[in-house]
Amino acid sequence: MTVLTAAPSALDTGDTAWLLTSAALVLLMAPGLALFYGGMVRAKSVLNMMMMTFGSLAVVLVLWTLVGYSLAFGNDVGGGLLGNPLQHLGLGDLMAPSSNGSSHVPVLLYAVFQGLFAVITGALVSGAIADRARFGAWMVFVAVWTVVVYAPVAHWVFDAGSPGHPGGWLVHQVGLIDFAGGTVVEVASGASALALALVLGRRIGFGKDPMRPHNLTLVMVGAGLLWFGWFGFNAGSALAADQDAVIVFTTTLVAGAAGTLGWLAVERFRDGHATSLGAASGMVAGLVAITPSCASLSPLGAIVLGAAAGVVCAFAVGLKHRLGYDDSLDVVGVHMVGGIVGTLGIGLLATAGAPTGVNGLLYGGGPGQLGRQAVGVVTVMVYAFVVSGILGLAVDKVMGFRVHRDDEVGGIDLAVHAETAYDLHALVTGRTVPHGTLRSLTHSGENR
């Protein structure tokens, strides 16, 4: 991803319009994710799940404006490890028209675009702790996490540097290729999710009680919005309305389709049924994998990678039952594993005919790029896991991260938010069921 600096230049209205549109598409991914996650949990915790996404949207954007963008894209203050946290404090210095002289888009717009990446990444982590987390504790966690995990990793990977601006060490010194966030977004969120799931422990009844999605219609609608928004996520990272954006748009499109087919194929041959949840999950897996590699592969390579991600992730989601950790909505199995597949896939399937201009191992490029991709994956995974685990333990120690047992069994929505997602005042045998009875039914712990 190109980094922007504040050198004055003529702004291109077409490129600016495309990045404005892309930023709006990435913003749309937040309610899309809320619907996707909300449909996957039980009815008694829908609002809590959706609130964690909307809460992330609010707190992350404020922190990104204050200090996050400076940490991620400010002038380096530590050998490629971190940007100057005070350089763009509040983003007020970016209000004058400015660009980097190549993409011709305002730096302020680029800062906003990147802030929305941070929102989605933080919100993804919440899926691992669905049905059992305190909302206040989550808000504190995601706020600090944005500053100590996301912003530094974004600096390492996304800040490619410019004259007088060395940039992040993974992209500038190691040579990692990650066009739109396979490590920064997917691997970081998945590793953080695993750490947090271990800190909070398993849900009551995990492995014994059915914990099926309560509303697959919401899941499918949310998945569709995510796919739509993903074009802003990936193609918007080209920072221009040009041929590179067209190639990225195409690889993103076909990888999502191939991921769907890969996951459904596994379900059909393994379980005998191709499910709607599998279709939505496979689509996301394909999109996750193509995120880092969308500017490095041909359309055919994108199909191969997307299908591989669908297959691999379909098997990976079962690891939580074998290993005993409770990743409620399979953030580890889809996002971390899918991000690894996509990031390493560059080292295998990249072609010099794509915008990044690198050949992978299968195109005669040798093992060098694959090694650089592996360094990026391992570094981000270990850092995000360790720091997120420490942060999760600290929040739990100070204020308690998990809801009370009775609230978890009865329903987080009523206990924490004093609301329910659905109006259950129904007519039974010609009479309205008393409210207390319905509340008791809602608290029964059954999946509805």
UniProtKB/TrEMBL annotation:
Domain spans labelled Ammonium transporter AmtB-like: 17-422
GO cellular component: plasma membrane
Bilayer disposition of the protein: Multi-pass membrane protein
Molecular function via GO: ammonium channel activity
Bilayer-spanning residue ranges: 17-37, 49-72, 107-130, 137-158, 178-201, 213-233, 245-266, 273-291, 297-319, 331-354, 374-395
This protein's record includes keyword Kinase: no
Protein family according to the UniProt entry: Belongs to the ammonia transporter channel (TC 1.A.11.2) family.
Protein name, per record: Ammonium transporter
Organism: Oryzihumus leptocrescens
Species lineage: Bacteria, Bacillati, Actinomycetota, Actinomycetes, Micrococcales
